[in-house]
């Protein structure tokens, strides 16, 4: 019985949050979907969001792209494993970390794969390089099984500006319908 009450109040708290999120978004404003994707899953979700919001898209590209060997997290000496072990190696320069007409965007979706429970660090470079003042920022991620965890909050800290919402994690193979359903809850 107690459990039932708990889950009921949990559901209503969630609804309240979604409403608050929807209210924080300027729905007649311009949307940018910026993302990093190592193997295409986050890219798919990003394109579904862009379609559903009529947003513009920017794909973040590391100046030195990650090869398949670089991404091998089972190998202790791979690039990602070394970067994971030593935070000072995670400053990944991007081909482009600035956006044309940045000031024109009201809402910025920021997408990434989850790496070891946090945002894949190529997005850190973008987040640190831009001023989010006056913008609503909505993180999204794909992962094998991990949730969004602290990833959004850590990025928010790095940015230091912007109105960051809770965001959403999708499974790697999320469908367009799943993504559309979420975008609808944000009032688009
Ligand atoms: C270096 C690395 C670390 C990962 N760490 C996690 C993790 O901690 N939890 C998880 O569920 N998936 C993890 N994954 C799986 C990816 O998050 C998942 O495959 C994601 O959808 C990949 O997105 P992408 O195709 O856009 O790169 C990891 C993948 C890589 C390459």
UniProtKB/TrEMBL annotation:
Where does the Flavodoxin-like domain start and stop, copy by copy?
31-188
Which superkingdom, per the lineage? Bacteria
What Pfam families does the record point to? Flavodoxin_4
Gene3D superfamilies hit by this protein: 3.40.50.360
Q: Which UniProt keywords apply?
A: Signal
Q: What is the protein name given in its UniProt record?
A: Flavodoxin
Task: Output the SUPFAM superfamilies linked to this UniProt entry.
Answer: Flavoproteins
